[in-house]
């Protein structure tokens, strides 16, 4: 479902020097599994995800989503993914109902209104369906964002730190939604730096640091690789080295 | 087309729910002319009151009439019919408010007061209409363009900057819809709001002129129906103002910075529009070659029922070129922001 081979992306820092934000990242994610992308801030998680979502053009390497190459068939890729990040905003003066209908229409859904209505119930946002998004709480906005991301029923979900700023209850709802998605056979790429989330949700983990993949595998495999028990210790060991 | 319509609909909803856009695009244009009319009537009434109190009112005894056999007696419009005979130093004046029957009545009263027949001449001493009509015919098109430029400011900023600042642009960029649909939808929304504002100004103007024609004696000599002739030039000028605002908003990095930039940038189309009111400005070179200025001049000529000749085509051609060039620059700038 998601396949990235030696992805590369370079930016220019404020001093004009090229910086490799992503330096040869390869990963795979299959239907019916949640793959966690773990890494500290600035590790290259978001850049990798944005390249997979066709929001950034890779400088090197290849990537395909749902069988479509991100460079050759970006529209098909976008049709296949539900992308969500903490920085993704909502149209502040549109209501949740309007946002969902609008995005469903953009995604080519024939029954856009019906899809929007179904999601208002699925995410328990019907009570706020006619309130402008600017007036919603952070949690409610994030629910609308999640609904927006899946309005076209995509087979692949790319969620970039979706729980940032959420309270426990809304985060819990998100986890339940993702577990449902896995049961339905969707492929989920989920980035976080909260180890508890990764431990609970992810079937496999890809640890990324300074734009490079440090390790990949199931939690059990990473434990075995590092000799540590808790994921937090596993992560620190991988990032800082065994001496830590 | 369906996608484009979806983008346009969402953009218009988003924009028209903004207080600033609503104020400058709908409320100000709708109420400006009626407001000006109200202000004008209040000022006129006040001035009339002052003039009334300043003018000495005198009774006319028979012996005075006998002393002034050759003095012209004027019948002045604008005063109550049963009112007074006044003496303004040079002439005896019968002040009345209506048409000829009232003039006759006033003249009869004067004659009664003078005890013997007296020749009464009716003189229209109202200010020359032509000057007023000319000024109004210039002011209406100028205000149409100025208000259109003002109306396009916030929508242009919204379209070019606000979405990116609020990270909303990602929301639509991860959909399968082509980028060109968003660019065209955004540009069209700014154009539509600006045209809407121009339309509201025009409607306000027509209502004002109709009010003047129907409710009072103060007709301006501008048939409201003639305003319809302005629509093509007003629409092109409004689109040019919108395109200019979009170009001005293109390099802006934040909404806050944009508000200052836009206020300054809008002065350009406003100044060009106001230049048409400069003394000596006419539909000939060099004024006829200046875009927007020539559009205002064309509209003035149309209101005054004068032929445009080749200058109409020159103005229209320049405006179309301006819209296409500025719109193209804005579209390119927007496209660059959509990877």
Structure notes:
The complex is a heterodimer of chains A (244) and B (339). Chain A has a single domain, classed as Rossmann fold. Helices cover 37% and strands 26% of the residues of chain A. Chain A has helices spanning 45-52, 74-80, 96-106, 112-122, 138-149, 168-183, 195-201, 219-226, 231-240, and strands at residues 2-12, 18-29, 34-38, 60-65, 68-69, 81-85, 156-160, 187-192, 204-209, 212-217. In chain A, strands 6-7-8-3-9-10 form a six-stranded mixed sheet, with helices on both faces. In chain A, strands 2-1-4-5 form a four-stranded antiparallel sheet. In chain A, strand 1 (2-12) and strand 2 form a beta hairpin. In chain A, helix 3 crosses helix 4 (112-122). With 339 residues, chain B is mainly alpha-helical. Chain B is built from twelve helices and four strands; from the N terminus they run H-H-H-E-E-E-H-E-H-H-H-H-H-H-H-H. In chain B, helix 1 packs across helix 7 (179-215) and helix 2 packs antiparallel against helix 5 (129-165). Chain B is globular and about 85 Å long. The relative contact order of chain B is 0.13.
């Amino acid at each position: 479902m998601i396949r990235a081979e030696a992805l590369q992306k370079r930016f220019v820092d404020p001093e004009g020097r090229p910086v490799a934000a992503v330096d040869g990242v390869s990963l795979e994610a299959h239907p019916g599994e949640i793959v966690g992308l773990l890494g500290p801030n600035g590790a290259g998680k978001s850049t990798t995800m944005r390249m997979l979502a066709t929001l950034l053009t890779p400088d090197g390497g290849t990537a395909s989503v749902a069988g479509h190459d991100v460079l050759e068939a970006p529209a098909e890729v976008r049709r296949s993914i539900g992308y969500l990040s903490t920085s993704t905003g909502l149209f502040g003066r549109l209501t949740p109902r309007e946002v969902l209908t609008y995005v469903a229409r953009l995604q080519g859904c024939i029954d856009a209104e019906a899809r929007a209505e179904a999601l208002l119930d699925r995410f328990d946002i019907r009570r706020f369906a006619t309130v402008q998004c600017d007036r919603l709480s952070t949690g409610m906005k994030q629910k609308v964002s999640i609904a927006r991301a899946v309005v076209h029923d995509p087979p692949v979900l790319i969620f970039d730190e979706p729980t940032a700023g959420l309270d426990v209850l809304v985060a819990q709802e998100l986890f339940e939604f993702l577990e449902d998605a896995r049961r339905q056979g969707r492929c989920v790429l989920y980035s976080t730096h909260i180890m508890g989330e990764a431990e609970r949700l992810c079937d496999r983990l890809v640890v990324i640091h300074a734009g490079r993949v440090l390790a990949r595998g199931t939690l059990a495999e990473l434990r075995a690789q590092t000799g540590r028990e808790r994921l937090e210790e596993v992560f620190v060991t991988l990032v800082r080295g065994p001496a830590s | 087309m369906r996608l484009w319509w979806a983008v346009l609909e969402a953009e218009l909803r988003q924009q028209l729910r903004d207080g600033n856009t609503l104020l400058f695009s709908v409320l100000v244009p709708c109420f400006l002319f009626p407001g000006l009319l109200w202000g004008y009537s209040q000022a006129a009434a006040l001035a009339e009151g002052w003039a009334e109190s300043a003018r000495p009112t005198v009774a006319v005894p028979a012996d005075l009439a006998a002393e002034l056999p050759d003095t012209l007696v004027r019948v002045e419009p604008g005063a109550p019919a049963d009112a007074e005979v006044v003496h303004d130093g040079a002439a005896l004046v019968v002040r009345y408010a209506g048409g000829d029957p009232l003039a006759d009545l006033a003249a009869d009263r004067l004659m009664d007061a003078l005890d013997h027949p007296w020749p009464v001449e009716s003189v229209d001493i109202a200010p020359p209409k032509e000057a007023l009509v000319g000024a109004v015919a210039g002011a209406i098109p100028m205000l149409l363009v100025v208000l259109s430029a003002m109306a396009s400011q916030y929508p242009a900023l919204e379209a070019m900057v606000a979405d990116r600042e609020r990270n909303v642009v990602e929301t639509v960029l991860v959909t399968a819809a082509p980028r060109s649909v968003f660019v065209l939808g955004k540009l069209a929304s700014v154009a539509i709001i600006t045209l809407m504002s121009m339309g509201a100004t025009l409607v306000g103007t027509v209502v004002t002129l109709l009010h003047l024609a129907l409710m009072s004696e103060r007709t301006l000599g501008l048939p409201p129906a003639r305003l319809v002739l302005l629509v093509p030039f007003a629409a092109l000028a409004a689109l040019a103002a919108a395109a200019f605002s979009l170009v001005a908003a293109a390099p802006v990095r934040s909404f806050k910075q944009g508000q200052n930039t836009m206020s300054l940038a809008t002065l350009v189309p406003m100044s060009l529009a106001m230049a048409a009111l400069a003394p000596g400005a006419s539909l000939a070179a060099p004024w006829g070659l200046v875009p927007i200025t020539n559009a205002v001049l064309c509209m003035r000529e149309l209101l005054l029922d004068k032929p445009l000749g080749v200058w109409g085509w020159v103005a229209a051609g320049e405006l179309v070129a301006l819209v296409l060039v500025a719109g193209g620059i804005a579209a390119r700038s927007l496209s660059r922001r959509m990877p």
